[in-house]
Every structure is written in C-alpha cells, then in structure tokens.
Amino acid sequence: MAKYKYIFDFDDTLFKNTELLKPRIFSMISKATGTSEKDIETRYYTPAIRDHFSLIEFIQEFFTQKGIPQDGVDSLFKEIMSESHKFLNVELLEEIKKIPPEDCYIVTTGRQDWNWSKLAYSGILEYFIPQNIVVVPGKKSRSIRNICHENKDFTVIFIDDKSRFIEELKQEKVPNLQCLLYKGENLTELVKKIEGYRSSELRGLK
After folding, report:
1. Cα–Cα distance measured from residue 70 to residue 77, given in angstroms and rounded to the nearest whole number
2. Which of 25, 28, 130, 163 has a CA that sits 20 to 30 A from residue 193's CA?
3. Looking at 57, 84, 111, which one is the last position of a domain?
4. What is the pLDDT of residues 164-174, one digit of tens each?
C-alpha cells in the first residue's frame, strides 16, 4: 500500500476565515466603536495591516481612534474568537479524523501570535500533533520542502486554496510532493484529482 502524508493550509481550507471570521471581526468592532463596517474592512485590507495582522492590535487601533478605554480590548477579542469552533470545515475535518495524526501537518502563513490564537480557539489542535503545525511569516515552500525531505518514503499531498502557493511549489519540483488546489471538495474528492493515484489506496479512506 502506498504511504501518504498530508499538509493542509489553515485559513479558508480547514477554517472559514474569509467567509465567517472576518465578517464577525468587522461587525463586532463596528458595534463596539461606532465605526462603519466598510471603514473597518477597508483598513483591514491595507497591505501593512493585512500582511501582519493582529486582532488585538486591530481592536486597539479603533478603540484609540474613538477614545475608548483599552481595558475593553481583551474582552472584545475573546468575544470575537469565542465562536471560532463553529468556523471549521466540518466536512474536511471528518476526513482528517480518519488519518493518523502523525500523518497530518498544517502549514499556514502570518504572525505567530494571531495564527496560534486562531488554531487554539478553533479547536483544531485536538486533531494534530503540535510539532506538525508550522506558522511562517511569508512563503510556505521551505517548510513544505523540509517536510517532504523528512518523509522521503511517503507521497506528500499539499492542499491549499491559494493558487500562488501551489505554483511556487510546482516550480520547486519536489519528487515526492503532489499539490492540490482546494475548491471546497472533501479530502476523498481532492485525492481523486491526483493523476496516477487511486483514492481507494489511501490510508484510512477505504
């Protein structure tokens, strides 16, 4: 039987960040500060903010603008994040539960503090070994190459919703790596996309 390892992106693959968390952030900061959701969203998508995002710092910025005491920042942060367990991709998670934890990785981009907060509040850590979770500030390619190198006897399947990360890795030509662009499928359907591999051969997915 062929042996496989899986690397998953987190945001918008395992976790509905754009669809569910971001609108909650914009809505709840708006209610707390009186700032329009449109202005909050526009500020979020400023490259300097988006690329180094911290929810705590984002809330602090709007509280400062409105002269709201900073001692309310933590409570608003916790209130926003309290629903995160509802934002997991349940269908994909059900497939992950069938795979041994040692065969699953997460590689995600962004600030360490913010990403680990999302991981913790989402409840996803229950299904992954902590040392198999990697948060990087920029490109994922080095971390994914390292995982492939450490698992030379396995086919490593990398799943991400961002085509730019897929294209970067295709240029690397890592021998034991298969890249899949995630478009909302469950894991079984994703695996069927891999030319030359049969989904029925996958560990735990028979």
Report:
1. 12
2. 130
3. 84
4. 888 888 888 89
